[in-house]
Amino acid sequence: MVAITYDIEIPSSIPAAKMFKAVVLDADTLIPKIMPQAIKNVEILEGDGGVGTVKIIHFGEGSQYKCAKHRVDALDTENLTHSYTIVEGDALAGVLESITYHVKIVPTEDGGCICKNRSIYHTKGDVEISGESHFETDPFRNIHHKICICTNHNH
């Protein structure tokens, strides 16, 4: 298995706790409201939203994907971190075993924050992903980016 890491950072004028609430805690209901073309709805299959929770995400009509199942691996509301792993779905494109996301919202001195997102793509066997094609179409990386931007504009 090959692991490929991709990092993105988005600065924001929004306070870190407020951004974490939007991007992580309220994301299951907020994203379908502000970006229904990206995500139609989120269904909890097991758990209470905390570590170990398994969810299925149904993508909207604007997405090339239909659904993805993900598991919450870590959730720390004090340190504003969240990790989850996509374990099933067409977003894995038949070449990925899983995709793990680490989200961290870091407060800045000016009262805003930096939204940090690390995506780790775990390929099946020795499959190599060429270029940035999968990274550019990764629905979750793109949604994190868009929700940080939308939250900035609505602040």
CATH fold annotation: Alpha-D-Glucose-1,6-Bisphosphate, Chain A, domain 4
In DSSP terms (H or I, runs of 4 or more residues), the helix count works out at: 4
**N-to-C SSE string, H for helix and E for strand:** EHHEEEEEEHH
Share of helical residues: 10-25%
Structural class comes to alpha+beta
For this structure, the quaternary state is single chain
Contiguous low-pLDDT stretches (5 residues minimum) are none
CATH structural class:
Alpha Beta
The CATH architecture comes to: 2-Layer Sandwich
End-to-end separation = 42 Å
CATH superfamily: START domain
Q: Tell me the β content.
A: 35-45%
Number of strands: 7
Summed over residues and divided by their number, the pLDDT gives a mean of: 86
- Identify the overall geometry: globular
Account of the protein in words:
The chain is 25% helix and 43% strand. It is α+β, with helices and mostly antiparallel strands. It has a single domain, classed as START domain (Alpha-D-Glucose-1,6-Bisphosphate, Chain A, domain 4, 2-Layer Sandwich). It has a seven-stranded antiparallel β-sheet with strand order 1-7-6-5-4-3-2. The mean pLDDT is 86. One of its GO terms (cellular component) is cytoplasm. Pfam families: Bet_v_1 (PF00407). Belongs to the BetVI family.
Helices and strands in order, then pairings?
Layout: E1 3-12, H1 16-25, H2 27-34, E2 39-46, E3 54-59, E4 67-76, E5 81-89, E6 96-107, E7 113-123, H3 133-137, H4 139-153
Quick structural gist:
With 155 residues, the chain is α+β, with helices and mostly antiparallel strands.
